[in-house]
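Module 6 notes. Inverse folding takes a fixed backbone as the condition and produces residue identities as the prediction. Think of it as a translation problem where the source language is geometry and the target language is the twenty amino acids. Below is one complete input and output pair. Work through it position by position during the lab.
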């Protein structure tokens, strides 16, 4: 297994932790197979290496199928980190770990704004809304709606090589310069052009991927069916404005 080889050849064998995103965010919504980190965990446990799940993008039900992204992997990580969505725009982030780990952090540690009451209230209010209104279920339903609404136009557009995603984390991979040869090379210039075309149709999307060629679609967790449909229309119009070549 690759991980075993990396540990044996590129480390002293004394590795503190593996930090992973259950679905890579800025990395372009790369989605490992379910259970992938569970398999890694079996190898890492031989080395006493901790597993840290970074849920800044995948947490709070965004993947639809689970509340936390790590739950697709059949493991409980040693530590969990989160931010952004936890405060719904108000500055807030957090880390959760077993007490024997947290109690080992003995260094003096404080922050001027750490634990401020406004952020804590925003976090609590957000959590109540997310749980009370089953936004995880909404992410699942709206994610399916978004993907199926995009499928047809994507399948007939040669420069979109992949439509993938879980829940409300959906990506379009922009590829190729030569449609006839089925080119799958990253095409970042076209991705940038596409983002601009989406803006012209009133829709702001993100970009990522190692080659800057993955369009990231992450609607708010409480998006309604009609908002998703508006997004699909804007994306479809942007694709048409660029052309199918
Ligand atoms: C997956 C992931 N982890 C961590 C961070 C950084 O979070 P913070 O700004 O709270 O340090 C980001 C920021 O975009 C992120 O996407």
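Target side of the pair, the amino acids:
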């Amino acid at each position: 297994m690759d991980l075993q080889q990396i540990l044996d050849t590129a480390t002293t064998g004394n590795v503190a932790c593996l930090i992973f995103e259950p679905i890579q965010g800025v990395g372009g919504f790369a989605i490992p197979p379910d259970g992938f980190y569970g398999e890694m965990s079996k190898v890492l446990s031989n080395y006493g290496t901790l597993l840290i799940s970074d849920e800044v993008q995948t947490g709070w039900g965004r993947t639809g199928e689970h509340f936390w992204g790590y739950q697709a992997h059949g493991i409980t990580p040693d530590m969990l980190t989160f931010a952004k969505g936890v405060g719904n725009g108000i500055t807030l982030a957090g880390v959760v770990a077993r007490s024997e780990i947290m109690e080992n952090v003995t260094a003096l540690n404080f922050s001027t704004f750490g634990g401020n009451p406004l952020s804590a209230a925003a976090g609590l209010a957000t959590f109540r809304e997310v749980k009370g209104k089953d936004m995880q279920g909404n992410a699942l339903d709206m994610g399916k709606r978004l993907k199926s609404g995009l499928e047809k136009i994507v399948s007939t557009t040669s420069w979109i090589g992949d439509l993938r995603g879980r829940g409300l984390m959906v990506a379009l991979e922009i590829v190729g310069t030569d449609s006839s040869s089925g080119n799958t090379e990253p095409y970042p210039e076209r991705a940038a052009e596409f983002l601009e075309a989406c803006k012209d149709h009133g829709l702001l999307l993100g970009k990522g991927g190692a080659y800057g060629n993955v369009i990231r679609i992450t609607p708010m967790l409480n998006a309604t069916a009609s908002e998703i449909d508006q997004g699909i229309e804007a994306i479809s119009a942007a694709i048409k404005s660029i052309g199918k070549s």
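Reference fact for the lab report: The two ends are 40 Å apart (CA to CA).
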